[in-house]
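DM from R.C. (forwarded with permission)

"hey, sorry to bug you on a friday — could you get me a structure for this? deadline for the figure draft is monday and I only need the backbone to look sensible"
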Amino acid sequence: MLVLHHFPGTAAMTPHMLLRHIGVPFRLEPIDRMNDGHKQPEYLKLNPSGRIPVLIDGDMVLFETAAICLHLADTHPEAKLAPPVGTRERAELYKWLMFLTNSPQPDLIAFWYTDRFTTDHGETALAACRAAAEKRCMDWFRILDRQLADGRPYLLGAELTLVDYYLFMLSRWGRSFTPGQCPRDLPHLGPFLHRMMRNPVVIATCEAEGLPQPWV
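My reply, with the result:
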């Protein structure tokens, strides 16, 4: 059975959604992040960076969310979470997945964990860093918004793929931005997020993780 080491609302959320989408048996292994469970020697043996999540698939240990997502898509092609390897559509998926992990995700981390990105922990400095991270994030989300501007229901087009679940997770992390200037407020990304919130997989995942409303 697949085992996902997770903590609610973290980067484990996308693999959690993919597992529910695929419909295979899996077990959630909670990590007590609030008490530094991800920094304990036992967990560091699985992921030396101490980050969440980790996926156990037989005798294989995988960390890094994007790697886990691609592995799940490739080992369960019937779930159609990614286009076939070697196609133009698959290249588009790689492009947007790397964009999500390399552009909005680091700046979202900077928004939530501002003290890691400055040696000046004074209130003014932290507020300035947080505001700058929020601005960068919204610049990235506007690029994603433009990708949806042609009326396509999902990031790659007509079909739901793993990058849509990933985008939902990251958009959720932006729910505390300046009111009226959140991912959900963008003209095309907003309807996409409402569409995703009607997805039974998203609903089941958010409820299983005990995430409070609003989800995005």
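R.C.: lifesaver. The chain has a mean pLDDT of 97.
me: no worries. The chain has two domains: 2-79, 88-199.
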